[in-house]
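Thread: "does anyone have the structure for this chain?"

Original post by V.I.:
We have the sequence but no experimental structure in hand. Need at least a predicted one for the grant figures.
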Amino acid sequence: MNLMKTLTLKNLKLNRKRTIVTIVGIILATALLSALVTLVSSFQYSMIEYQKQKDGDFHVKFSNVKMSELSEFKNNRNIESTFETMGMGFAKLDGCKNEDKPYAYVMATDEAGFERGCFKLIEGRMAKNEDEIVIPRHLKTNGRIDIKVGDEITLDVGKRYDSNTEGVISENCAYEHEAETLTDTVTKHYKVVGIMERPGYGMEDYSAAGYTFVTYSDELAAIDNGTKSEASEADTTLTVYSRYTQKALRNKDAVTADIIGVDEKLFEKANNSSVEMSSEESDRFLKEMENAKYDIYMNGYLINYECVFPIDGSFKALFTVAAVVALIIILTSVYCIKNSFNISITEKIRQYGMLASVGATRRQIKSSVKTEAAMLGVVGIPVGTMSGILASLILVKVVNALSAGWLNVALSFHTSLPALILAVILSIATIYFSATGSARRAAKVTPLEAIRNTKEIKIKSAKLKTPAIIGRIWGIGGVISYKNIKRNNKKYRTTVTSIVICSVTFIVISYFMSMAFSVVGMSYASADYNIGINMSCKKDIDIEKFSKLLSGIEGAEDYLVGAGYDFDIDKPEYTKEYGEYCRQVYDDSEDVSQMFLITVLDDKSYDKYASDAGIKNAAAGAILVNKCTFDVYNENSSKYVKKEMELYKYKAGDTIECGYNVYDDASSDDNAVEGGTESSTEDNSGYVDEETINNGVRKTVDVTIAGVTDKVPIGYKGYSNTLLFMNQKGFESLWGDGKNGNEIKPGYASYSAYVVAENADEYQDTFEKETEENPEYSQISFYVSNLDKEMRDEKSLFTLLGVFAYGLIVVIALIGITNIINTLSTGMELRSREFATLRSIGMTDKQFVGMVRLESVFISVKALAIGVPLGILISYLLCVMMNRMDDAIIYEPPYKAIILCILVVIMLIYAIMKLSMTKLRHNNIIETIKNENL
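Reply from O.Q.:
Generated one for you, tokens below.
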């Protein structure tokens, strides 16, 4: 056995090039597996940190906890740690523009709360004593109250009292307007020391009546430090934010139900979306929750991100993708490394035969091959593991460097020892399976077969007939090439199969990632603007003049102004799919009427939208958005899933008869309310009650479809009703001719504008200043939504997903490229004696080049002819499988991935063959023929 090991080691040293190529394959396979597990771990850790920043570092929030009960949480073995906040009360804010949020809600906490709560500081510092306070950014952007760091404020803090219920209103309840007042107020003086982002939903409900102001609590700090007992302030009410242990997190429902005192099974069932509760169980659950010891809020995303087992929620898809990619890496790597072993064994057949002839057993020959694999693995696996970790670290650093300033959360590099051990085990398995087949094949060789070396080439006379066209085009080199492929069919099949596997893998993974992004995009449709403006006025607004106002403010990168009018259509021409969906939703066997929203855009925005949608002559009619996403019940998964579907059969040039109602007070010019006199049929919001609708006069107007698209302009992403867009001139022309009695147009329009601003805060300040100073806009009520933070959060989330997704695609591409390079370059190297023999009997350089190029053409065409259709077929089957499991998606072939795959394969084969030919032409013919190690 020692002799065989020595011989194996010497062979590796003699065949250094082939050894290096095989080691590189092992290093790459191990590096890819290590990089994969490190990227998954880093992505999970980054998402956990992102969620902690967004909503806080806690799993379950318990409200209305008495100070005397705090020890129950501190001593609970299922709770790893806690931090507490104390509600100080509400204070009226003078000058607040948001009528539904007129208060400051003063909250107190200590160092643990500031550190682990979702208090993201923008400016200044956190409060360090009870006379200091931190205010939220949206106090200015939403409430329009400008308080700066260093300002001193006075707040009359008290309790919200509801005169209807004669009770105290909690902090997360919406504002009751006339029904509520502040009682038991106490005057407090604070110095503003910091400005923070708006706290997450777990700390400030979006419907809450107060902006969260945070101060310091000496009392909570003393309790945490152990210098004060909870019993000294037994009646004080706290909010406890608890972080569960990993074991408790796996049984979070049972643990939470036990703490709040409700039925565990019922609570678990209520929190399981895949289990349907009966009406009796729902009533029981609601009653139990009303009588629960505490109110709760569960930080669901953080729980999903941290709960490794059972895998649920967002990371179920992540780990599934990672497992699939790991399997693909193993399979392709096994094939890649196996090629190296097979080629090596093919060239060492005579050696194995000679060993067998002098007494080497099959077991010893097998052991020799496996020893070779082990030696290569000892070098390749450690280097590969470190390379994978280093590559992941560099990727994270590069992304953070490139995204500094615009990415709202930094990617975190994180390694997991169990994950790396798993990667090493998988790498060992990859090498083992690569070598096993080759070892078995080497052991079966008999001495006579090995010395003759006739087993590799088996031909029939019919197979050697060469088509005449090959000789005419490529000459003798082409004929030899064609016959050589026929003789060495097994070797060429190996090369073609290798390229096919790489092509299929790249196409399928690319499609899978694009499909994943499509599903995530439908589920989490983010806003494509950061300033939204809703307008209310008693007369029409000139949208062209208003658009000039928006574009004239510095920092407007894109904008749109729209006036929306409601119409309806009787029995529209639905597509089959959408018609069935409508009948299912409305529980009607007949076709149902459909509400349409015709939105008139300013001219510049309309022209830009039409150009982006690829619609010519858009001014001649309306643009119909004919694709939308709906929640559809999937019977296979018993869940509501997002499904995108086409809506109507209409095409460019068709006419739609749109209906609307007008009323007795409508003038011939418009149906808007003029001069401050309110309509008897409408309130200021434009709401028309059912009785008025029934008494209204029915009118219709014919709208011509200029084009159909699935794109929407900014501000209309995620709309679930039918959208038609027109410009002002086209819309006015519908009433200009007076046909069909349509000279009276619908009166009420909902006006809105959407802006993508470079600096949302500065843009909002300038806009409000200009509209307040301009008397022309004094009769218009503006409601401005600053969505800059939400937009940045969504952008950050999709960047994280993008880094992981495209990182995996690059990983797969590297496997494929390496496999192709390894297979082709090794094959050319091993055939150098054959090429030298041909050149020695008179083959010219031109004939030699022609022969190799024809082989390249055969390999490329055959591999792509099999690989591309197979990739499309598997990606389609993947789409079908996903539709059955969960989301419903319309299949679209991954054209970009297919084109990229074709180009890369052709260029790679051409480049490798060209380099190999250049190298082989410079080799000494006699020395190459004499070389027994090839």
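V.I.: this helps a lot. The two ends are 25 Å apart (CA to CA).
O.Q.: and The first strand starts at residue 60 and ends at 66.
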